[in-house]
Amino acid sequence: MYRVKVQVRRAKQVLQTEGLIPLLRQGFAFLAASFLQCGTYYLYEHTVTERNEADFMPKIQNFTFKTVSTNQQADELVAGGFELGSQITMMRRRLDRGAIAFCIFIERELAHIGWVALTEEAKELVDAFPYKVDFSNGEACTGGTWTDPKYRGTGLMVYGYFKRFQFLKERGKLISRNVVATSNVASQRGHAYFGPKICGEARYLKLLWWKCWREKPLP
Q1: CA 94 – CA 122 distance, rounded (Å)
Q2: Are the CB atoms for 49 and 86 separated by under 8 Å?
Q3: What pTM was computed for the model?
Q4: Up-side HSE of residue 199: CA atoms within 13 Å toward CB?
Q5: Between the CA of residue 52 and those of 2, 123, 159, 162, 194, what are the distances in Å?
Q6: Domain locations in the chain?
Q7: Count of CB atoms within 10 A of residue 133's CB?
Q8: Chain centre distance of CA 90
Q9: Cα separations (Å) of 45 from 39, 118, 180, 195, 196?
Q10: Per-residue pLDDT tens over the stretch 59-81
Q11: Burial of 61 from C-beta contacts in 10 A (0-12 / 13-18 / 19+)
């Protein structure tokens, strides 16, 4: 239901700003993506260690960082003038499941957000790909990373990951897992700051309601 509402809002915006033909084109593209999805992903394993925050500071200096773990905290941010925009509905669902948001604001506008999941229930919304995370043995996963296009290339993702790993270390979590598309070079470069182990490669295929996820180890 949430995804439907988001798509309806987007469709109205495209119709109002670009017209009917662009709306139809995007509609056909959306339907095609809904019926068939495929991709190749690297399986990342991060060892959480002590790091110097100064080494990961973004190029933008006037920013505000916030960790959000409850819907009450999200409401307090909004009441305080911070803008969460279209992210707010998705945030509420993930926070309800126990996921933790790591937000960076520029002049109270959300510029970057990333997530940490400490349970399988939270992971289902943060990153639905079925790679294994051993939550019972202190592992965690990250996902749901987004940066406003106008702030990309400024180091917000790298700093956001530093704060997530710092959070995990403080809670005794020593391993963090996630996946990155093999085509997503920008994300791979950001992860490289933390020296991860790329422990495997996975292929994902979704056709209607049928899904296939196959992993193979890398040397």
Answers
A1: 7
A2: no
A3: 0.83
A4: 14
A5: 39, 28, 11, 9, 11
A6: 37-217
A7: 19
A8: 11
A9: 19, 15, 11, 9, 6
A10: 998 999 999 999 999 999 999 99
A11: exposed
CATH class of residue range 37-217: alpha beta
Q: For the stretch 32-41, what's the b/e string if a residue is b when 16 or more beta carbons lie within 10 angstroms of its beta carbon? A: eeeeeeeeeb
DSSP state of 83: B
| Helix residue ranges, H only, the chain | 2-17, 20-35, 71-79, 87-96, 120-126, 156-170, 185-192
What six digits make up the tokens of 174? 């020593």
Q: Around Cβ 180, how many Cβ atoms within 10 Å?
A: 20
Contact 155, 149 (CB under 8 A): no
Four-residue CA torsion sign, 208, 209, 210, 214: positive
Per-residue model confidence as pLDDT tens digits over 84-109: 988 899 999 999 999 999 999 999 99
